[in-house]
Amino acid sequence: MARLPADGAGAVCPGPTASSAVEILDAKTREKLCFLDKVEPQATIAEIKTLFTKTHPQWYPARQSLRLDPKGKSLKDEDVLQKLPVGTTATLFFRDLGAQISWVTVFLTEYAGPLFIYLLFYFRVPFIYGHKYDFTSSRHTVVHLACLCHSFHYVKRLLETLFVHRFSHGTMPLRNIFKNCTYYWGFAAWMAYYINHPLYTPPTYGSQQVKLALTIFVICQLGNFSIHMALRDLRPAGSKTRKIPYPTKNPFTWLFLLVSCPNYTYEVGSWIGFAIMTQCVPVALFSLVGFTQMTIWAKGKHRSYLREFRDYPPLRMPIIPFLL
Ligand SMILES: NC(=O)c1ccc[n+]([C@@H]2O[C@H](COP(=O)([O-])OP(=O)(O)OC[C@H]3O[C@@H](n4cnc5c(N)ncnc54)[C@H](OP(=O)(O)O)[C@@H]3O)[C@@H](O)[C@H]2O)c1
User: What InterPro entries does the record tag this protein with (predicted)?
Assistant: First the structure.
């Protein structure tokens, strides 16, 4: 049964019968938001979030971050109360993560945008390049090839989002979608504007340069896909298991011998290939920004692997073999 807190502060939340108590304080103001009496010691953080939602329905579980320290890391949903370093009354600090949106929706929006935007420039729809160019087509083969590669890349990502990735987090803060879409959509428009421009000039070394670039692009796309499949196979459907990824029989996965996030290595490689193919400054900049972002993430993931697995292969670097 739930009981009123001694000082009467905060709402009293209905808890299950058993022995521990949990108080939830606002991480910023330290105001008592909720007191859960007699919580099962085996209760998970996910269950505590559900109980908290009963008195604060505006904070549905995906919006909640519960921590042991107001400025510390969020506890995982699967963490169990009795395994946490707390006394008989556990104090948890709550932070509102803001409105949430599902990862799948996020990815679909982020990736469908560039696909569609690029095609507007490729088909030279009115009001982009001037009336006389409306719905005209470039005379350069590389422009058509670039459109094929760009579209292939985003169709692949959409399909992977729907059918390959097994995400551990169901949602992401809604505000991130504005930031991410500005990045993906903005760069797609900028790159497409120049590549499909009627005055675009093909790369300096002609078809040799294009063939080399296409080879890099195709290899990296196959590599990226192979790594995504290998990561998928690490996690049984419906679980959140994280394991050390190892090379499989597929040679594209052998990069796991040297880096923790070869999917990022291949992703950067694809964009370098695309930059060489189109010889276009916005593409080079997109590759550089993407590389910077993915390096930051790869370093974070690499650190977590080292923290989580004592037997983590020592030769691996985050993203670039032997270097970075
Ligand atoms: N161009 C760009 O700027 C850019 C930037 C970022 C990403 N991308 C592309 O988008 C792709 C996906 O990005 P991402 O950041 O989501 O990649 P990621 O973190 O490597 O994750 C890919 C998938 O594998 C799962 N996973 C990762 N490590 C795992 C492990 N040790 N055990 C089990 N499952 C694991 C992830 O689940 P979790 O949900 O648990 O993480 C996720 O479902 C990248 O590979 C890249 O091609 C492009």
Answer: 3-oxo-5_a-steroid_4-DH_C, SRD5A/TECR, TECR-like_N, Ubiquitin-like_domsf
